[in-house]
Amino acid sequence: MIDIIKNRIKQGYRTSKFPEEDPGLPERFRGRPVIQPELCGSGCAACVEACPTAALEKGKNGLLTLDLGRCLFCTECTAACPEGAVSFTKDHRLAASRREDLLVTGNEAKLAETLGEEMKRLFGRSLKLRQVSAGGCSACEAELTALGNVVFDLGRFGIQFVASPRHADGLVITGPVTRNMSEALRIAYEAVPSPRLVIAVGACGISGGPFIGSEDHLGGAASVVPVDLFIPGCPPHPVTMLDGLLRLLGRLKEDRVGGQDRRVVPD
After folding, report:
1. Helices 139-146 and 238-248 meet at what angle, rounded to 10?
2. In this predicted model, what pLDDT tens digit does every residue of 43-80 receive, in sequence order?
3. Which domains does the chain have, with CATH numbers?
4. Among positive and negative, which fits the CA dihedral 69, 70, 72, 78?
5. Positive or negative torsion for Cα 99, 169, 32, 135
6. How far apart are CA 70 and CA 52, in angstroms?
7. DSSP per residue over the chain, as a string?
8. pLDDT in tens, 107-161
9. Which of 6, 58, 203, 249 is the most exposed place for a label (fewest CB within 10 A)?
């Protein structure tokens, strides 16, 4: 017992100070992509051809568009681009409230919006979520599990996962939504008391991800139920998921002076 106590003292405080401080992500972290149109040659489509999920598209005007809902963050596009027109930053902020807000054409980000006042009043202090794996590979599910560990400690924000949709305020959906899981997802959604939230996590949960083109899936959560928050990634980092959830609940605000996001404690 003494050895356990000594070891605990030696480890110190392990919980991340995010969002009060920078999450301290490593240099190799692949976050929000940036497109530099001025570097993109009009006749080049190497990045488009290299993308395994057709996340990149070149319009008639020659401008590139990257769909975060399809992107696997594999960097095949950056390796293929001879001019470096596509790059990935360390910006963990990826979640959006609308599907179209996941389309990247430059370096501007359309981040998740706060719920309306009534929904924020209901869920701002306490949010219970039921996770549904609709055909996922368990990568996104593993990162969601990590949200509950001592480092990220999701419970300190009043957000918890529950065992039954009847005890939940909303669903967190992972996986491409296979045809075999579509009915189960509908039943789970209808079991959540109204008003309810739906959060689609990962490229699969948003668009089908690497399974795009398969006849065995329906193309993400929005094909079956309405979605309030999209969190892209393959899989998304726990900080990315936490950032999206806190923005949805109105628990973050932008510090216009320092450019950092700060935690907001609800009234």
Report:
1. 70
2. 788 999 999 999 999 887 778 999 999 999 999 999 99
3. 117-263 (3.40.50.12280)
4. negative
5. negative
6. 9
7. -HHHHHHHHHH---S--TTTS-----TT---SEEE-GGGS-TT--HHHHH-TT--EEE-TTS-EEEETTT-----HHHHH-SS--EEE-S-----BSSGGGGEESSS---PPPPPPHHHHHHHSS-EEEEEEESS--SHHHHHHHHTTSTTT-GGGGTEEE-S-GGG-SEEEEES--BHHHHHHHHHHHHHSPSS-EEEEEHHHHHH-GGGTT-TTB-SSGGGTS--SEEE-SSSPPHHHHHHHHHHHTT-EEE-TTT--EEE----
8. 888 999 999 999 999 998 999 999 999 999 999 999 999 999 999 999 999 999 9
9. 6
Instruction: Please state, rounded to an integer, the average pLDDT across all residues of the chain.
Output: 91
